[in-house]
Amino acid sequence: MKRRDFLKAIGAASLALPFYDILCGDQRARAAAGQAKRLIIFYFPDGVPGVSEQGEGSLWDCTGSELNFNLSECLQPMERFRQQAVFLNGLDMGPADSGSHPGGAKKLLTGIDGGGGASVDQVLANSVGSGHPHRLLYLGSMANHNNASGDKHISYSGPGQTVAPEDNPMRAFTRLFGQGLPQGDMGGGGPTRRQLMRTSVIDGVLADMNDLRGRLGNVEKIKLDQHLESLREVEARLKADASDMPSIPTCQNPSQNTAGLTPDGLYDPSRFPITLRLQMELMVQAMACDLTRVGVIQASHHTSELIMSRFPDSEMHDPGFDMRSHQASHYGSRHDRAKREFTDFVAQRRWFVSQFAALLDMLASRPEGDGTMLDHSLLWLCTEVSDGNTHRHDNMPFVMAGGAGGCLRTGRLLSHYGRRHNELLTSICHAMGHNVTGFGNAGNGPLPGLLA
Known about the structure:
By secondary structure, this protein is of the alpha/beta class. It has two domains: 1-30 and 170-261, no CATH class; 31-168 and 270-452, Alkaline Phosphatase, subunit A (3-Layer(aba) Sandwich), CATH 3.40.720. It is 31% helix and 11% strand.
């Protein structure tokens, strides 16, 4: 089979996956009642303005009772989703390496000091995700910046063995949907990059889609049309993002897909918001296509040099002043609003929360079953330390969201001071239908009161 025909077949199969159950009567992709159909972990770096060295209260923690609570300053972007989320106060990752960014990153998803085991995403990928085209989809935005490796990454395939996320949304699109966007002149009479930018993956398999459409009922035809339109929107955003990037060296071998080359602008901090949004859109689309059930989005990495003051149209934007994430996290011993580092740190954390809320919006906008994708999804917002200045590992800033197929009891504030976050990892496994007695090296079963 020629490479082009092979890619076309992959593309058609990927586009049709959401309708496989309808055509074949196979229930393999459906999560059991009362279980989450998918998990998305959203990580941001460098902690939050928690309890200061001088004992001032956290600007992240919610206040109030379980059902009657107030969102904190940093969590305000989650207001519209308060009834679809669980806000967690007090969970502890243990004393080992407390005061350390790397130490927190190593045990965040593994539940084991020093990253001494597989992370929860990898465990679930090998269990509930094993029957899908992609067991795990691990996407990053500047997560590999400055050749980041090792403990800069949060997914562990085994003891001490991290894996790297995919930072390039165009390459991720190619991997998922089977059609690349080669850069430059391919040589040998092949299409140029500009010509291929005008070619649609969907159009390339349109005949197959029309055949599929003729075999569906009226309701499913509408869903297929919406599905294809959504794919076109994602594809258009990727092409628009690529069109103004600098040229990349050409490849003279026409059989080689040059879309894997990283555009020069991929690590420009001013483009970070665009790249992150593209990765979130790809994550949602891949899960809508049932290409994977387990995903991780890593926004930068710990001790991040990401210059967030270069984000256009954000409250941090100040092109004449460079303020990095890690730089702002060391705001000092107290919450001093007269200090630029502190006010920028608060704004940066609020921005990351707004991106998590945008991800929830994407899922909520897509119908699924008797509700939306958000109703059937489980999401976890997390970072590797609590307070960005002290680097402590207690009272971790965690938020769970989504309906999780009915098993997550949302609209609540849960306070579990002193309990280990291993119990949260265990609960995540249970919500995904992977029943374990515990996870990592601490804790006692699932976290009380989190799941129905």
